[in-house]
Design goal:
The protein is of the alpha/beta class. The protein is 41% helix and 12% strand. The radius of gyration is 17 Å and the shape is globular. The protein starts with a strand and ends with a helix.
């Protein structure tokens, strides 16, 4: 039975951006899935037309939505997440819902204290109005270029904005900012969980999640005995998973996954399934 792979998009980007990854992983023999966030519609245009459907959703609700989806799969998947999707991927892995995880330029988990200026500026479209905590927020093309397309030429950034940009809930950004003082922050991850392999990646020109933030997240796992790897993509911005250089990132991730021994996770799932028959 093919190993499932679940692709999890980040804030402000529709899951349609994963289509090339979906095709590549399927060709490599994986059963690939790319469900959207709770409230997303099937297309970017339809999602833009109903921003109220995602308003008020937070990290816990979004994570629970993916956990419900995964529960219907025939086996524990490998989860690959970008940005806030990378944070969700780490939570699913620590909870034992996933066999392995890849967090690409992930939104910071609780404990990652560095907030470079570029990251704060990228979040200002949400943070500038406290009422955005319960609203859906859309980026302008200029804001998208700063946060996602800064390492691209203007034409490519504009094409990606037109193709994939959608409104996103403001609440996850407020939860991220409040994590340090919130003892029950939904951005918290069990760093010592008995889990499968984890790859965290950063991008050296990323404004939304600067590479120092990704590297800091990796450092938080220093006490874990589980496999935890790190890789930085040079000269890449936050659009790295869906811009013209996406295949370099996808090939690296696919190679890392292929090198992991996930037999123990598969045996665990098989034993659990047999015990419920």
């Amino acid at each position: 039975m093919p190993t499932p792979v679940v692709l999890i998009h980040g804030l402000w980007i529709h899951t349609a951006a994963w289509k090339p990854w979906h095709d590549m992983f399927a060709e490599a023999g994986y059963a690939t899935h790319a469900p959207g966030w709770t409230g997303d519609d099937a297309t970017p245009a339809a999602t833009r037309a109903r921003p109220e459907a995602v308003a008020g959703l937070g990290v816990a609700e979004l994570t629970a939505g993916y956990a419900r989806y995964i529960a219907e799969l025939p086996g524990k998947p490998i989860v690959v997440g970008h940005s806030f999707g990378g944070l969700i991927a780490q939570k699913l892995l620590a909870a034992g819902v996933a066999a392995a995880a890849v967090a690409i330029s992930p939104a910071p988990i609780k404990g990652a204290g560095k907030l470079p200026f570029a990251q704060i500026r990228s979040a200002l479209p949400v943070l500038r109005n406290p009422r955005n905590k319960t609203r859906a927020v859309a980026l302008s093309e200029r804001q998208f270029r700063y946060g996602f397309g800064n390492a691209l030429d203007r034409d490519e950034s504009r094409r990606l904005f037109d193709a994939y940009a959608i409104p996103g809930p403001g609440r996850p950004v407020f939860e991220l900012i409040a994590a340090k003082k919130d003892p029950h922050s939904p951005t918290e991850v069990d760093l010592t969980a008995d889990r499968g392999p984890l790859l965290i990646t950063g991008a050296t020109d990323d404004h939304t999640v600067p590479e120092v933030v990704s590297r800091q997240a990796y450092g938080l796992y220093s006490g874990s005995p589980a496999v935890t790897d790190y890789h930085a993509f040079g000269g890449r911005g936050h659009s790295l998973v869906f811009d013209s250089g996406w295949s370099d990132v996808a090939h690296y991730v696919l190679g890392w996954i292929d090198r992991q021994d996930l037999s123990a996770a598969r045996r665990s799932h098989q034993s659990l399934s047999e015990g419920t028959l």
